[in-house]
Amino acid sequence: MHFTARYLTPLAVAGGSALAIAMAPAAAAAPLSCTDVGSATQCVSPGNSQITANAPVVQQQQWPEFIIIHRNR
Question: What is the pTM of this model?
Fold first, then answer.
């Protein structure tokens, strides 16, 4: 049986694709290492870094100021 590059190229691409799909779950299963940094959380895995920051909650009183302004008119 005579193989040419015309037949070997799709076979090599299919084999490479199958290998990439088979190895993807192993790469995705890398554990995250999370650290609290002030008001942010930094999670790191090999080749990836994620920083999540949340603004502090501020309590504001809206209605008493509104009532005082219109009471004097």
Answer: 0.34
